[in-house]
Amino acid sequence: MIWCLLVVFFSLKLLSSLTWLYFQNEESIGERSMVIVACLVYLLIAMIVLIIDERHLETGLEHAYSSFNASASEFLAAQGLPSSGPASKLIVKLCMAVCCGLLGAIFTFPGLRMAKMHWDSLKYCSGRKTLQLLLNISFILPFLLIILWIRPISREYLTERAFEGMQKPLLSVEAFETMRLIIVVLVVLLRFALIPIYLQSYLNLAHDKIVDLRKEAGRITNVEYQKKISSIFYYLCVVTLQFAAPLLLCLYLTLMYKSLGEFTWAGILKSSNSSSICTDMCPLSEAASVVDEVELAGTTALPPVATTIMSSMPASDSGEHIQGEDFNILESANAIHAQWISLKNVFNADVYKGFLGFASWWSYFTLFTSSALGIVYQSYFSNT
Known about the structure:
It is found in: Membrane. It is a multi-pass membrane protein. This is Transmembrane protein 161B. Keywords: Glycoprotein, Membrane, Transmembrane, Transmembrane helix. There is one protein chain. The protein has 384 residues and is mostly helical. The protein has one domain. It contains 16 helices and no strands. The chain has helices spanning 2-24, 29-50, 61-78, 89-106, 108-124, 129-147, 155-160, 173-193, 195-203, 205-215, 222-234, 236-260, 284-301, 305-312, 324-346, 349-383. The chain is globular, with a radius of gyration of 27 Å. 29% of the residues are buried. The model is unreliable at 273-322 (pLDDT under 50).
């Protein structure tokens, strides 16, 4: 999990650094304005998304917030700090909307770059229909991921409705969740498999620049000519980062969602009539009772920390009693362990499932919408 956090952190850091370059250069006024506008637009879209009923868009944030609020209140009460909750739902959603707007802003130019390379790749591979099909599939698959989180057209049809002639739905809940995870991995693998074609389409811009220079009137020195061509190759590393960093961010957010949300890769093998404990599909009261039963069973099966430590200590041959300082150390260790367990219960699987699930879905959404906007831009200016 630490490696996943590191990949997510460095992906965000690289994308933020590339976006911040537009604010440091005085000549990048247009790019700077576009980043600000994209941030505000994605902020507005995120606010709209966060107020959509979860019966339509399966974000899981309502259940995650309820679980977090209840667990945090119990934790604060145990520490002698009675509270109704650490933060209101409005503040939490507002902070999430701001983060979504910032993520959309740093995804803007990578998405536009991806659209430009996709458009050029289709042009250069005009005689290879199979390759064009793969390129179009890799571009459309993120849209499939977006609609898999729309409940009426995904989960209800695949996991709840039994079609005519069938006694059970097509997929179980576990199989549906695993299918979404597998599709994310396939999208990333397909994009990385096609990365040589995308990067070659970018390098072909050098040839296009030469053709444009030959059409212009006037003269140009060899130094200026070399600068125009070499700038394409110098910028190749930035283009590679703009292509790979969003994909790695989406992939590792999904892996964190899978691990911390307690999903499994073997869920696709389970039949649709298998029963499972899924707290996001049952009411809060039932979920709380199930969690309480599991915790009660775990506490009765495991010995206390102090008993374990005491049993592991060697017996004294002289029959001396343990000093008071030793008791203080054991009590402190037991108290720290109990507080750590209580803190872990605050951030349980339901909380991770809700917030990481929404973060993963939003990353797919911004990745596709920014690329789709770039395709619209390319198609408009190519026809004018």
